[in-house]
Specification:
Helix content: 40-55%
Oligomer: single chain
Shape: elongated
Mean pLDDT: 86
Low-confidence stretches: 655-660
C-alpha cells in the first residue's frame, strides 16, 4: 500500500513540476549543444540530463547526446553510441589496453568517424531552433574512476575537428564526477585510476599541450591527422563530487550533479534577456570567469558548482491532501453512525413490529379449539364442576391432556420453526441493504450499533418490554384460572346438558389456551430477540475487522506523510499537514454544497466502502487517490505562487493575539535565502586554506523583478565578495540558485590526496595506468 501512496505522490510531484514548467517561461539555448558521455559509469547521467533539459528548454529537441561505452549502451534510440572493446582485460593492463587497441582498430575508428559525422549532420538540421548557429558547445561528462576516460583527448579532439568543418567556434567543457562514497569492489584500483586521469587532465589542459594523431579514418582506409597545437583541449574543467565543501556526503549526489551540469550548460549557452540587464545584475561571461579563476596561472585551475532549489514540496502536499481527504471520509462515516435509536433499531430489524411479524410467520394467528375438542374427557357431571375454578375444572375434565397437546402442537412446533429460521443470513442481508449499503448510514454505523454494549442495552430494553406483556398476560391467565364455574338452571335441564357441556369446554379452552398462545408468541419474540443478539454480535466481530482495516489505511497514509515531510527541508516542509487540512476542509465544504453531505459515497468519488474493502484495501486506496487527482489537486488552491503559499503556510498556526509575531515577507525571504545558500554549497571537498585564487559567482533563476530576487540583491549589497546575477525567467514554481566556484588546483582536492596513495602503490606493482610515458605527465604533490 505504501508503494501506491509513494507512486501517487511522485506522479503528482512530477506532473505539478511539468505543469509549473509550462506556466513558467521556458529556457532557450542560444547556441547548439552536444552532451558526450564517456564511460559506463555515467550511464544514468544520460537519461537524467536529457529529462531535465526536455522539461525546461523549449528547443530541447535540438540538443544532441552521444555515449562512449564498453558494456551497456544507452537504450534511447536517439542517443547514438560507440562501443570500446575491452571485455576480459585484466585491470593491470586495462587503461593502457583501451588506448592502444583504440588506435589499432581501423574498423572501429571508421565507425566512430561515421557516428560523429551522422551526429554533426543531425545537428545541422536544427539550425532554425537556435538564435546563433556559428558556435557549438560540447559538454563532455565522465567519472574520474572510469577506465574509458583515457580516451577523452581523442574523443574530444576528433569531435571538435569534425564540428569545425561547419561551425566557426567550437567550445568544450569537461565535467568530471567524483564518487567518494565508493562501495564498488576494487576500490583501491579505481582510486588509482582516478588519480591517473587527474594527471592526464593536468597534461592535456597544459598551455603547451600538443596532439597529433591519425584519428580521422575514412572508409577507404585513408587516415587524416587530428592535431592540437599548444593549447588546452577544454575551456573549463569542472570537478563535481558527492561530497560538498563542508565534507558532507550528499543524498542522491550523482543525480544532483547531473542536474547541475544541465544548469551550467544553460548558463553558458543562454540568450540574455535585455529587460533584466542593468548595472547591478551580473550577466555570466565565460571568458571573465576563466580569467578570474586563474586560468592563466602555471597550474591547471579547476571549477566546481553547487545547485539548490526551493519549491513547493509537492510530494508531501499530495500525501497531506490524501490524508485529510481520507480523514474527512472517516469523520463522515462516524457522523452517519450517530442516528436516533428508533431509526437504527428499525434498520437492524429489532423494532417490535418486525419481531412480531417474524413470530406471526412461524406461529398460528389464533388458537384453534376444534383440535382440543376432539380430546377424550373424564365423565364429570355438572354437579361435580359446579363451583370449581376453571383451572380445577380443566384438570377434572382432561387431567394434563390439553396441556400436553398444547405443548406438542404449539410450543414444540414453534421451537422447531424458530430453529428452522434462516435468521442469520436474513438479518445480515437486511443490515447490508438497510444500513451498510445506504450512504446516509454505512459500514461504520452498522459497526457502532452492533457493538456489544450498544446492542445488549437495546436487547435488554426490548426483552423488558416483551416481558412486561408476558407478565400482564400471565396475570390475566391466572385470573381466568381462578374464575368459578357456574351453570344456570336452563343448562341443567337434561336435554340441554350435552350441548351445555360442549359449550362450556369450548369457552374454557379458548380462554385458557388463547391466552397461552399469546404468551407463547411473546416468548417466541424473546427467543428471536436473543438470536438477534448472537447474530449481531458475530456480525460486529466481522465488521470490526473492516473498521480496523480502515484505521490501518489511515495509519499507513499518516506514516507516509511523516516520512515524506522529514525528507523536506525543515523550513520548507513546515505546517504541511496543518495548512492542507484547512484547504481540504474548504474543498470538502464546497463539495457538500455542490453535491450533498454524503458525496463521498457517490461512484464518481469513493463509492461503496464495504464493497471496496471486500475486494481489497488497495482498491479503496486507488479510489481515494483517483478522487484526489481528479477533484482536489486540480483546484485553484494548488496553483498559487510559491512564495505566497509558503508565507501562508508558515503562519497557519498563528492566531489572533498569539504571542508569536506573524512572519513577514522579509523574514520569509531571509530564511529562503539561507536555505538556498546552505543547500547550494559547491560539490567538492577541498583544503580551503591552500586555495589562493578562490573565485565565486552566484546566479538566481527566477523573475528578476520579483520581491525575493530584489531582496537577494539588496541583502549584502556593498560587502559582497562574489559576483551575483539573475537568469530572468517568469516563473511561479520556485527559485533556483547555481553557485560557481573556481581557482583551486588538483592538489587542493582532498579526494586526490587519498587517491594518490593507491596510485603510487598500483604503479609500483606494475599496473599500466597510462598509455603514454609517465615522465610526460605533470607531477602532483600532496
Amino acid at each position: 500500500m505504501e508503494d501506491l501512496i509513494i507512486k501517487y505522490a511522485e506522479e503528482y510531484a512530477l506532473s505539478a513540476d511539468k505543469s509549473m514548467n509550462i506556466e513558467d517561461e521556458q529556457r532557450t539555448a542560444f547556441n547548439p549543444a552536444i552532451f558526450v558521455f564517456v564511460g559506463d559509469k555515467v550511464y544514468d547521467a544520460i537519461s537524467c540530463i536529457r529529462q531535465d533539459i526536455e522539461g525546461k528548454w523549449d528547443n530541447s529537441s535540438g540538443v544532441l547526446y552521444f555515449h562512449i561505452y564498453s558494456e551497456d549502451k544507452c537504450r534511447d534510440e536517439n542517443t547514438p553510441g560507440f562501443k570500446i572493446q575491452c571485455s576480459g582485460v585484466d585491470h593491470k593492463e586495462l587503461r593502457a589496453h583501451i588506448s592502444h587497441s583504440f588506435y589499432r582498430d581501423e574498423k572501429g575508428l571508421i565507425e566512430l568517424n561515421n557516428v560523429i559525422r551522422r551526429l554533426k549532420n543531425d545537428l545541422l538540421q536544427y539550425g532554425r531552433m537556435y538564435s546563433n548557429f556559428e558556435k557549438v558547445n560540447i559538454s563532455l561528462i565522465t567519472r574520474a574512476d572510469d577506465p574509458l576516460n583515457i580516451l577523452i583527448p581523442e574523443i574530444a579532439l576528433l569531435l571538435k575537428a569534425k564540428l569545425y568543418e561547419d561551425f566557426k567556434i567550437v567550445s568544450a567543457d569537461l565535467y568530471t564526477l567524483i564518487l567518494e562514497r565508493n562501495h564498488e569492489d576494487n576500490f583501491g584500483y579505481y582510486s588509482a585510476a582516478a588519480m591517473s586521469f587527474f594527471r592526464e587532465i593536468e597534461y592535456f589542459q597544459s598551455k603547451d599541450y600538443d596532439f597529433n594523431a591519425p584519428l580521422e579514418v575514412l572508409e577507404e582506409g585513408i587516415e587524416i591527422n587530428v592535431s592540437n597545437n599548444s593549447t588546452p583541449i577544454f575551456d573549463l574543467v569542472y570537478l563535481l563530487s558527492d561530497k560538498n565543501e563542508a565534507g558532507l556526503i550528499l543524498e542522491n549526489a550523482l543525480r544532483k550533479n547531473y542536474e547541475t551540469i544541465s544548469y551550467i550548460s544553460l548558463l553558458k549557452n543562454r540568450s540574455v534577456d535585455e529587460s533584466s540587464y542593468d548595472a547591478e545584475n551580473g550577466i555570466y561571461n565565460n571568458n571573465q570567469f576563466k580569467n578570474n579563476i586563474g586560468i592563466n596561472s602555471p597550474r591547471v585551475s579547476y571549477a566546481t558548482a553547487g545547485l539548490s532549489k526551493v519549491k513547493r514540496p509537492n510530494s508531501a502536499i499530495a500525501i497531506a491532501v490524501l490524508y485529510n481527504f481520507y480523514r474527512g471520509l472517516m469523520e463522515r462515516l462516524k457522523d452517519n453512525g450517530s442516528c436516533d435509536d428508533p431509526v437504527i433499531m428499525k434498520a437492524l430489524g429489532l423494532d417490535a413490529d418486525r419481531i412480531e411479524a417474524l413470530v406471526g410467520d412461524i406461529a398460528e394467528d389464533s388458537f384453534d379449539v376444534e383440535d382440543m375438542m376432539c380430546l377424550m374427557t373424564n365423565k364429570v357431571s355438572f354437579a361435580d364442576l359446579q363451583g370449581m375454578s376453571l383451572g380445577m375444572a380443566e384438570k377434572k375434565l382432561y387431567n394434563d391432556v390439553c396441556s400436553k397437546f398444547f405443548q406438542d402442537n404449539y410450543e414444540k412446533q414453534m421451537e422447531r420453526n424458530i430453529e428452522a429460521l434462516d435468521l442469520g443470513n436474513e438479518v445480515i442481508r437486511d443490515i447490508r441493504e438497510n444500513i451498510i449499503n445506504k450512504p446516509e448510514l454505512g459500514i461504520y454505523c452498522a459497526y457502532l450499533w452492533t457493538k456489544g454494549n450498544v446492542i445488549s442495552n437495546e436487547i435488554i430494553e426490548l426483552n423488558k418490554s416483551i416481558q412486561r406483556d408476558i407478565n400482564r398476560l400471565n396475570k390475566e391467565l391466572d385470573a381466568i384460572y381462578e374464575e368459578p364455574v357456574y351453570f344456570g338452571p336452563m343448562q341443567k335441564i337434561f336435554f340441554n346438558q350435552k350441548s351445555a357441556m360442549r359449550n362450556f369446554k369450548r369457552s374454557m379452552l379458548e380462554r385458557i389456551y388463547g391466552h397461552k398462545l399469546q404468551i407463547l408468541k411473546l416468548r417466541g419474540q424473546q427467543c428471536i430477540v436473543n438470536k438477534y443478539e448472537e447474530i449481531l454480535l458475530k456480525l460486529n466481530s466481522d465488521l470490526e475487522k473492516y473498521i480496523n482495516r480502515l484505521l490501518y489505511i489511515k495509519s499507513r497514509i499518516e506514516k507516509c506523510l511523516l516520512n515524506n515531510v522529514k525528507q523536506e527541508d525543515e523550513y520548507l516542509g513546515q505546517n504541511i499537514e496543518e495548512y492542507y487540512e484547512t484547504v481540504v476542509k474548504k474543498i470538502i465544504e464546497d463539495f457538500k454544497a455542490k453535491y450533498e453531505d454524503n458525496f463521498y459515497f457517490e461512484e464518481r468519488f469513493i463509492g461503496n466502502i464495504y464493497e471496496l474493502l471486500k475486494r481489497d484495501d488497495e482498491i479503496l486506496m486507488e479510489k481515494l487517490i483517483d478522487s484526489c487527482n481528479k477533484y482536489i489537486l486540480p483546484t485553484e488552491y494548488f496553483n498559487r505562487n510559491f512564495e505566497d503559499e509558503l508565507h501562508d503556510r508558515a503562519n497557519i498556526n498563528i492566531k489572533f493575539n498569539d504571542e508569536r509575531d506573524i512572519l513577514t515577507k522579509k523574514e520569509l525571504f531571509k530564511k529562503l535565502y539561507d536555505i538556498l545558500e546552505d543547500n547550494g554549497k559547491v560539490n567538492i571537498y577541498i583544503l580551503n586554506f591552500t586555495t589562493r585564487h578562490r573565485y565565486e559567482e552566484k546566479y538566481l533563476f527566477g523573475n528578476y523583478n520579483s520581491d525575493f530576487i530584489r531582496y537577494a540583491f539588496e541583502l549584502d549589497h556593498g560587502s559582497r565578495t562574489y559576483k551575483l546575477g539573475c537568469i530572468h525567467e517568469r516563473r511561479t514554481s520556485g527559485i533556483e540558485k547555481l553557485n560557481l566556484m573556481g581557482g583551486f588546483t588538483i592538489e587542493d582536492v582532498i579526494y586526490g590526496k587519498n587517491a594518490m596513495k593507491y596510485y603510487e602503490i598500483f604503479m609500483k606493482k606494475g599496473y599500466r595506468l597510462h598509455a603514454i610515458d609517465e615522465d610526460k605527465l605533470p607531477h602532483i604533490e600532496y
